[in-house]
Amino acid sequence: MVKSRKTLSVIAASAILALAGCTSAQETGSSNPESETSSQSASAIKTIEDNFGSHEVKTPAESIVVTDNRSFEILDAWGVNLAAAPKQLIPSTIENYKNNDEIVDIGNHKEPDLEAMAAVNPDLIINGQRFSQYYEDIKKLNPDATLLEFEPRDGEPVDEELKRQTLALGEVFEKQDEAQKLVDDFDKAKARAKEAYDSEQTVMAVNVSGGEIGYVAPEKGRFFGPIFEWIGMKPALEVENASDDHQGDDISVEAIAESNPDWVLVLDRDAAVKSDATPAEQVLKDNAALQNVSAFKDNHLVFAPGDTYTNENIITYTETLNSMADEFEKAK
């Protein structure tokens, strides 16, 4: 059949368009221009505010280093892959990071291998807690990386700082909904513990390490300190010049017994770092001086999760607050 001039013109035009499309795909290095556009739009630059100001962060990051103990559990739950981390400081409960041979170990905060960190060419570093002291060194060794730190700032409420960190990480890793849920769960647990607490009962927090019992001061003491203020708990004992020492302040068990707390909150420091240590519960219950204390007679002891000392993030606090609420409610 003989084609009309009009038909031939349409065929020619179609061929030209098809050729142009092929040429365009070849120039972009892709046979699927739509896929190329989608890939380009997947990357973005975000402005994130941390302790040191505003930073531009490329998302998604390709090589990620994390040194901050408060971040590991959160990022693991979100499926974030790490290039390097101080694996000796990662809690054993976070198996995906702790036992991952593909993650380069940069040592611990006492003898860090910062060169090993630089060797993975990070484009994003989440620094903090035990590694805060190395901020300037890390920055100098990794000039092309975005360095973020959300360590709770002095003078700021710890609960708000935990939420700030969580929400910022949600922005960095495109997990805004998940981050908000962690914050909501934390707020609910805090409100629940406050509601369940009997304001007439006294509370003491202790830190057990190396078989020794240390005093954790309300407000400033390690981990449990801020909870006193959040819940409005009545301290059984207040010590002058108390600190936030990682082993607690040195007071005698006789002083603890004399204060006769109705509740004792316990942080087992060794549980997170020593597999062969005597459990805190045994240390406390085997101590003859404490046997007549109300909290021990009534079994009003609340233990923080075993990995708390190396895992003091918003999830750990949420779990602890819910445990406190459980025990307070049972006692009513």
From TrEMBL:
InterPro entries: ABC_transptr_periplasmic_BD (IPR002491), Bact_iron-sidero_bind (IPR051313). This is ABC transporter substrate-binding protein. Belongs to the bacterial solute-binding protein 8 family. It comes from the Bacteria. Keywords: Signal, Transport. GO terms for cellular component: outer membrane-bounded periplasmic space. PANTHER family: IRON III DICITRATE-BINDING PERIPLASMIC PROTEIN, PETROBACTIN-BINDING PROTEIN YCLQ. The keyword Ribonucleoprotein does not apply. Coiled coil: none annotated. The keyword Protein transport does not apply. It is found in: Cell envelope. The lineage of its organism: Bacteria, Bacillati, Actinomycetota, Actinomycetes, Micrococcales. Residues 1-25 form the signal peptide. It holds the Pfam family Peripla_BP_2. GO terms for biological process: iron coordination entity transport. It comes from Rothia terrae. Residues 63-332 form the Fe/B12 periplasmic-binding domain. Its main location: other.
